Amino acid sequence: MVICSQLGLLIGKNLLIQWRSKLWTLFEVIFPLLILVPVILLVNNNATEEKHPETTYTSFDVSGNSYDLDRTISQFTKPINAEWFSSKYLAYCPRNDTTNELMRELESRYEGRSEVKILVRPFNTEVEMETALTADLATSGATNWTYIGGVVFETVNNDKKQLAYKIRLPKRRQDPDWHTDGQWPVDPANGPRSERLALPREPKYWNSAFLTVQRALDTVFIERAARSLNRRGIDDITVGLQRLPYPSYVTSTLAGFLSVLPTLLAVVFWLPVVHTARTVAAEKEARLKEYMSVMGLRSMVYYLSHFVTAYAKVGLVAGVAGILLIPVLVHTSASLLLISLLLYAVGAVMFAMLVSSIFHSGGGAIRGAVILWLISFVLLIINQKNLPGFTGMVFYSFNINSAFYFTLRVFTIYENQSEGVGWFKLFNSPSPDNGYSLGLGLIMMIVDALWMWLLTLYLDLVYPADEAPSQPPWFFLLKENHCLWWPTA
């Protein structure tokens, strides 16, 4: 009863202060709504869902010889020799009689049609070869490189007809990742990449010579094995490649808006976060909290009262945004989206509480909130530009803005699939290789709110404002401080 009485009095005090500073209160609520409401209404009035038919592709030949160097597989892709301009080297290791013969035969396959050829250069060890490839990558420009890559032979056994090798290709800073460590994309694309091309433009499967070198190596080895057995080889067999058909898909206006909503909310919540942190820190700077603590006020009650007051404003903005989006939620559960928005609002207010426990003056809290929220926002942008794997997503989710982005990303993917996400799909992942589900995103936002709340109370005890008595950093291990949830200052 005492705690409820204290909480009620403090909330009343905070509401009275809000009433006396009507301009700030309106600015914290009206400013976000003036940005969000018109945008959401625009999405509502122009909501569309366009269905795209299945996409199929033509096949193309891979011969593993000089024909590949001037082959044009589509009107939008240059042939290899037009991009190289001159002959390039293919490194290989280790150097021995077997690999030398194999690679000389490979080299001969690229002679005769043009001045652009694939030449081979041996190295004794893999380390020696990697050193040469790395040096060439560091010193070469866009067109004057020497090596197209290297081949590391692991097993070459003519008697047992066994061949195992690795192809090493250079990766420049501007080149996209090949993502060879997973079978499925971490961030499934909505629609096919390079839709009109027989082969995606990125990664450079064709222009890096990866496909033709692989075909040439396999053909040379099989031809040698066939000759030793007096059997027919495969050189005269046509090998064609064809992209898998891409199934029909949907592009949704709502999905596009949900993908940018985390960025938009991070911007509009900036002002309430900064003002809340400044309000709490200014009270501590005026020693108001210290005086109330002497009279028996508990630290948790003090911060909880400010949380309730701030959440009334931030939660109102998040709730209005969620309610306005309900009319366009055809496939997705409206309750789940609303809960996600309200949990994000909880995390934003807890962020402000944490900042107020770090900085003990109003001016310091303003500067600290601006800088720390900006850092959190930058991490969000980094995650949008370069989505990490599952472990990285869980790690970044300890940042409330990133956790909210990963959560809405699940909504976006399911919305694009015309399935939507509901309570029965709460822990279903949209990607087979990435287990980050909507349920995990909601849990991480709750975890964020809890760790920021606990750290706020902890810092208030070990790093209090002014001359307030402090506890040692390990106070929670002492018997007399058996409970952290109900500390008195």
From TrEMBL:
The chain crosses the membrane at residues 23-43, 249-271, 301-329, 336-359, 365-382, 394-414, 434-454. Pfam families: ABC2_membrane_3. It is a multi-pass membrane protein. It comes from the Eukaryota. InterPro entries: ABC2_TM (IPR013525), ABCA (IPR026082). GO terms for molecular function: ABC-type transporter activity; lipid transporter activity. The keyword Ubl conjugation does not apply. Signal peptide: none annotated. The keyword Membrane applies. One of its GO terms (cellular component) is membrane. Residues 24-458 form the ABC-2 type transporter transmembrane domain. Keywords: Membrane, Transmembrane, Transmembrane helix. It is found in: Membrane. This is ABC-2 type transporter transmembrane domain-containing protein. It comes from Plectus sambesii.
